[in-house]
Design a protein that fits this description.
Growth Hormone, Chain: A; 0% strand; globular; mainly alpha; 392 residues; single chain
Length: 392
Amino acid sequence: MSGASVAVALAIFVSSAARVLPALLAIPVQQDLGWQTSDVVWPITLGIAVSAFASPLAAHGLVRWGVRSPLFTSLVLLAISLALTTRATSPWHLVLAWGVGVGFSGSLSASILGAMVGSRGSAAHCGTRFGVVMSIQILGSMAGLLFASRMVEATEWRTAFHAAAIVVLATAFVAFLLASASRQGAEPHPSASSPHALSCSERRSWRFWALAVIFCICGASTSGLIDGQIGILCMSAGLSLSSSADVIVIVLLGGAIGGVASGYLADRYPARMLLAAYFVARAFVLLWLPFTGLSLVELARFGALYGLDAALTFPALVRLMSANLGSRGIGPAMGWMMAAHVMGATIASAGVGALGLADYVVGFACVGLACLVAAGLAMLLKGASGKERLSS
């Protein structure tokens, strides 16, 4: 394994662990500072939106400069944002720290890095490689949740943010040293530059927009509901901080299993058939949750099923995107798709946050019905079996 690959894996793990802190500790921060719930929810939502708009820029930076400089910049920005959180005295401070800082750092996501790394080498195993990268991200989030929830209960929320900032900053320098000076670290091909970017005609094609809609719905049904809202939902339902973190860990554990399993399946079965099945299952789980009592056992059961399904989609989505848009310029293409993904997450997070716990059933039901639309769109796209090689 090259130094660049180790740097990417380390950065994904640590940054994923750190980025769960705002969503997990939003309620403790709000209660300690005496603010309204909306004062901590909207900075999280803004951060998701900023990530969406900055994703194409981050993908372009990887293609232009390689992995080392963008990765280092992203980690340093994340460390600064986490440290500034502890100095917040008014809601707009969180807007800067979580909305702008964490948002921009999150634009260089594991999805973009995974798509570029996964498209290197043998096409027969690109889904598996991408699934492994996504599992590293999920395991990092699990570690962050367990560490932060226990630390906050033992000390306070500021200690968790300080510790995370120090670890992220140290990781930035370690990753910078590990990454090779070559600018090919995260690129799928040595010549992955502007000639391989998506052409205007490709961006105007109906397949591009159908994929964008699918990614948007995927983001709404995963990041929008889970990353930004599940912790708040659990604590609003009466669960303690550690119990809420345990539910999220169950979600992520299912995701870690699903990430590797989906990569294996995506390399062997038609991607559009897999996606249709995943989205239909996700719709049923979302429509089922409102009929539960939101107890710890019921939320844990939901988390296991939903986490497994949520992680299943991305490797198949990457295969389907390659089959319909081509493998050239996979990084920039994923940048645009992640913009759609995070935009969907923003809409869902803002909608559910505005509805509140009393009417959360409406938001979850609407997203569940949208998943059925995504399943139908997946079936309309050009199919590609796992045995087909990516076009060059």
